[in-house]
Input
Amino acid sequence: MKKREIPKGLRDFLPEEVKARRNMEKKAAGLFNSYGYREVATPTFEYLEVIESGAGHHIREDLFLFMDRDGGIVSLRPEMTVSLARLAATHLRDERTPQRLYYMANMFRQVQPQKAQYREFWQLGVELLGASGVWSDAEVITVAAKSLLELGLKDFKISLNQIDIFNGLLEQSNLAEDEQEQIRFFVESKDLVDLSNLLEKLPMDDQLKESIALLPVLHGGLEVMKRIPAAEKNRKTAEAIDDLIKVYEALQVFGINEHIVVDMGVLRNLDYYTGIVFEGYSPDLGYGLLGGGRYDNLLGHFGYDCPATGFALGMDRLALVLQKQQSKKEELRYIVGGTDLSKMVKEADRLRAQGFITELDVEGCSREELQQRLAHYHAEHEYSLIFID
Amino acid sequence: MKERLTIALSKGTLLEPTIDLFRQIGLPTEGLSADSRNMVFTYDNPEVTYIMCRPTDVPTYVEQGAADLGLVGKDIIVEQGKDVFELVDLKYGYCRFVVAVPGERQGITLKDLNYKRAATKFPVVAEQFFRSQGLQVEIIKLHGNIELAPIMGLCDMIVDIVSTGRTLRENNLVELVKIMGSTTRLIGNRVSYRTKHELIQPLVETIQDYMKGGMLSDN
Output
């Protein structure tokens, strides 16, 4: 009997939920338009070769794959950046640069469904194509931060990094590729224990070891970059640090630096990133809200050599946070009861002025009666009783 | 706003050394004991909350952000493969994953186990290990008393957690291969680590420093 089932990890959206998503889309579209970004759409599925040539082979286990009648293997899109790169390389290569594009669409991944992780999920995002300077990185990060603000999130952090800081150090180590891959994996997953065990065993310069071990925990303002001992001697790393400083300074000018944290442990695990990367978090959700970065080689895979940077934001996750924020506000409700009306009114007004929804017991019930009623009210909301004799 | 740290603790054998560690590094431990039936312990200075979990549930609480940090064995972390940060090796609660076979088969090598059956509570670890050795082994997932399975002819070998090896000996099993060692780890939620960095990082460093001092024994 599967008549009423839907496949694992998928959801129906009820009126309130659709309303919330449409609302997000509308606000984000307004913001993106005001920065000169134009909306594009791509097919829901693409050839597997397209996806893999952009996102790398290890994405395959997450894909929903099937065959078309001609025997081609196709995949539901797991993310948008690769499809957009293909689109731009095919259709927009003769247009002026920079190109500012945005999208809002559903993505599909065969992940283990759980809270904030669905097999069909909705993303919105922007891509800025054809510009390579740090100002373009800063603009995209600014649009990301402003999207969150515009959609109603106030408390969030964006972690910023430049992956060549790490890549430079790793190259300098002269380790075999699989050893480098292992180190990358441990840094990315912040497995500090296995990382330090592995580093201990490897034949490497001590200063370099110390620097690599430090990267995953370096977190803070620009000052954290001074703490990498091996940086000065490594040209790639030093240049990447310089790049990161410039982006950070530009973000101060753009006025969103209060949300920015430098975090050298952010590497993003997609193959296509080449420089600045970033991720956005809310303290109210144990999963990231947005992510993005620079990917200067991706369009080249499709025959159009062109620098690019962008981000994607998970609407389902953001909805969870916004919902939580809302219910938090509603959480604290008061009922003010008693016998002395003037004192009751005064207390109720005081609570309302503080932003609490406050109901006055207009029926003049006794304390016991009100307590009994509260038992039923609690099903709806958390209520606190204030009784003034 | 001052924020509160929530730490998931493993009930059972890991609890005593955990309380001991907390006492040493100056985290509150008042009222915290293995006999207590409370599941939540809240303190105000510093602002921390401990929640008591089954060890196998700790990674779930941490991954989903219901707890910011957790203390749990590496054995459970690798078996579950949850997306959590592994911050410090706390060294206590040592045990190891082993492949064990009935005593009468002593002397065989790993190669002889190809196409055989292994019973285990840790199918992921077992599967990964045999695969990495290029072996095809049928994994039988059981929930407890793994030692019984080879006696009853359900399997040819077991993959299990061993600390002293006594249970193996009592059931006439011998250790053939050690897969990996395991100790207790401090794990953290991906996002908490960033949004509560100013609370978590100093704690991590305190514990790291304390561990370097080597004041806790390995067992």
